[in-house]
Amino acid sequence: MNLPRPGRRVTLLVWLVVALGLVAGIVSNGLIGMTLFELNREQLRLMEQESRLEQASQRLRRLGQEAQSGIRGLLQLDLAPATPDFPADEFARTLAEFRQPAPIPEKTALVGETEAAAGRLQELWQQAANWRGKYAGVYEDHQQKRTLNRVRDNLHQLRAALETFEGHQRLQEAQQFRRWRRSGDAEAATLATAILAEQSRPWTRVLNEVKTELVDLSRLVEMLAGESQLDQLADLRDNQLKPGLERLEGQLAVLRSAGQLGARELSPAAIESLKTALFGTGYAILKEYQTVRPGTGGLFQLAHNRLVLLREREALQAAALETYQRLEAIHPQMTALTRERGREVAEEAERSLLQSSRNLLLLSLLTLGGFLGLGVLITRMARQSYAQLDALNHSLEEKVAERTALLEAKNQELIRTQEELVRQEQLAAVGSLAAGVAHEINNPAAIIRGNGEVLRRRLAVGGAGAEEIGEILKQTERISRITQGLLVFAREQALQQKEVPLHPLLDDILAQAPHQTPIGRVEVVRRFREDLPALTGDREKLRQVFTNLVLNALQAMDGAGTLTVATRLRGDMVEVGVADTGPGIPPEVKAKIFNPFFTTKRSGTGLGLSVSYGIVQALGGSIEVESARGGGSVFTVRLPVGGNRGEHQE
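RESULT FIELD:
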């Protein structure tokens, strides 16, 4: 039927209210959807970038290790086979991935440091290859002792010539003694005088000095060949070998001037050959400086070159290690930058969601205000209309109230969604931080532990430094336990669902407890329900939970008290109570005990109860604690008899 004019106005206003509600819903849902879409797209981009940087960092670390190993191989003293070529192409591809654009301005400096470290490794590789080429000749000569044997031959020839000369002298003396024995009295006296005069001449003493000098020179030659300090070489050359050779030349000159040596016996040419073998071809003796300037070749130059090359080798090894450590240090910095960007995005997401919530609340208030205004207008118009319009107005008011309630419900749902997103983001950040810290600590801790073991094997038992090394290894083991706890906390609980008899498991834990913490005068009481059904769950995860609770209770009593372990069945839930008579837990501490990283122990990590809480939740159960100051504590674990059938089950 045709409505009067006020009725048509009411109808139009009703449609206006409906349209306003639809527009408000579309706009609010659109704003939330666009915000979530943009945040999700940014998060996916950051995840992809972090994954790419992580893969590139791992490759860069591997290439750095290969480069360090290759340089070490080139610098082997025994010249064993080594990798000849530097992996330049792989380094270039990895650095190209680091240089890809990313919304992290600080990354440019790190990329520059990475390129510089890679270039330095390639430079050190080439220097190591050049060192190997120079060392090969010195190593071969040193191993085969060619130059040393040449010097030894010269000394041997001099000693042989001296022995021949002494033999001739002894033969002449023997002939004179023979003549003396066969001669008459008058001739015997003359011969005896001549023999005594011959033996008392100075050259006989000089002959003994020559023998001693040759022995000393042989000793000095062996010292020169085996010398391990550069600064000792010059002292051997100028203060021992040079004076010794000069004394030998002077002694031979005395023998020669006394007419005891012929032109070819212990000749100056033989001494010169020895000097050349020692100091090299073209050597020069600088009188004004009392030193020898070495020539080409010679034992001194060989020993000098070998020690110089060994010093260069040590410098190259140290530079390679320092460069590799620089390359290693870049990885955590790059990861930290990416994570910092992730935190910024999370904060931006929180701000965006908060702003969207404010906008939605404002829009809801405006819509509600519009609804109320239209309601008032409709009410005024309805008073002037017929009874039919009165009924229509009543229906319209119901729709307005329903739409208002719907918008308020959506607003509450949006706020709850926002809070859940923020909580999940915070938990994910804590887990990621825990895993990252554990991963970054494990590598240097493993290096410290490995080097500590090497030092402990080198040090004598009970010797100096042994106690300090033991303490280092003990503290390193503690670091490993802490990082293992961090990894367990960060890792999602994966459950092996099997049937687990609870009482044997608890008996085993109580039997092992004295091996893990001092039990002292603690009395252990078992209150087990006899017909308790077996649980369906992960045996090792349950062992971890109850072991942690039992050890905490024993430690709280400090060696004196009563530990009570009880089992009960309530409906389809099994309850396990662990009670102690310790000092209890203060209320301000009780509220935090399940928080990760919270602990009141000096050596604890604060992860035991938080990890246990996560395991029990993953099994579909719960943990509750009752405690009062001075009245002990009771931890109650509730678990379903049939086990958890959720998404964590394997």
